[in-house]
Design goal:
Layout lengths: L1 H19 L3 H9 L5 H22 L4 H28 L2 H20 L9 H19 L3 H10 L4 H25 L5 H24 L5 H26 L5 H27 L4
Helix pairs in contact: 1-2, 1-9, 2-10, 3-8, 3-9, 4-6, 4-8, 5-7, 5-10, 7-8, 10-11
Length: about 280
């Protein structure tokens, strides 16, 4: 059952990644963590993402000169953050890692689903601290797409520049994290065993997503993906709260219900505004 779910969710995630340029880990991880620990899942995903991110970067390579100076400070912060995050992953119990993953991911997804965009004036000042945070988050969870997308959308990156910036940073973080995992001995037979189940989903899903995004409005597709992702993360958070004895099942159902209501409202508002731009 766990391998069937892994194949299905990685196929959906790869399709989203092909369409938007990000989203593979942020969709895969919340579901896969129901069956695997981070110490098994992360090494496999990092190696897969190294290839995916390399493909995204190659396809948008012409825009690299446009964004290079803006992302260099973030790359500097990444190096520090990945070292911190890899050490945390080595020390902390798997259930706590799951909790941190869901806890930080949920508000980022809801912010994207809400379409909030407020440009940051001091972009250079926050770049290195942001890079440290992203590196730490990625090396612990293999997720960085939502905060990166939130920042780049806020800063008004053009579509190709947006994808190129994502590609540069995500190739760097997946490469550095892969090396860090090797140093701390995270690669195992269990991690390598799940890679063959993921590869076919990626090979089929990414081209499919690239094709599908041409047939529909990108912003509508993105909002629907974020709504789905929010539900998945809300469910995962409710499960891990019970696992850590932080809440009763009844309390976690209430948390999940709140996430569902927020998601429903944000989707309703988005489609309402699309139908009536003056509202």
């Amino acid at each position: 059952m766990d391998t069937v779910v892994l194949v299905l969710i990685t196929f959906i995630a790869a399709t989203v990644n092909g369409a938007l340029g990000y989203g593979f880990s942020s969709i895969t991880v919340p579901v896969a963590l129901l069956f695997y620990t981070n110490r098994i899942l992360n090494p496999a995903l990092v190696l897969i993402e190294l290839v995916i991110n390399g493909y995204v970067l190659f396809m948008n390579r012409n825009s690299i000169p446009n964004i290079w100076r803006r992302v260099v400070p973030i790359l500097i912060g990444l190096v520090v953050g990945i070292g911190i995050g890899s050490y945390i992953l080595f020390l902390v119990q798997p259930a706590w890692i799951k909790f941190v993953t869901y806890f930080f991911l949920l508000p980022l997804i809801l912010l994207q689903a809400a379409g909030i965009r407020r440009p940051i004036q001091a972009e250079k000042a926050i770049a290195i601290p942001f890079g440290i945070g992203i590196g730490t988050l990625y090396s612990v969870t293999t997720i960085s797409g939502p905060p990166l997308a939130l920042l780049f959308n806020n800063q008004g990156y053009a579509k190709q520049d947006f994808r190129a910036a994502l590609g540069v940073i995500r190739v760097a973080e997946s490469s550095l994290t892969a090396i860090a995992y090797g140093f701390i001995g995270f690669y195992s037979a269990d991690s390598m065993d799940i890679i063959p189940y993921i590869v076919p989903s990626v090979i089929i899903g990414i081209p499919l997503g690239t094709y599908l995004i041409r047939l529909m409005d990108p912003e509508t597709f993105r909002r629907i993906c974020m709504a789905f992702d929010g539900l998945v993360v809300g469910f995962g958070l409710s499960r891990v709260l019970v696992e850590l004895d932080f809440a009763t099942p009844m309390t976690t159902y209430s948390i999940l219900s709140i996430v569902i209501l927020i998601n429903g409202y944000l989707l309703f508002r988005f489609f309402r505004d699309r139908a009536d731009p003056q509202s």
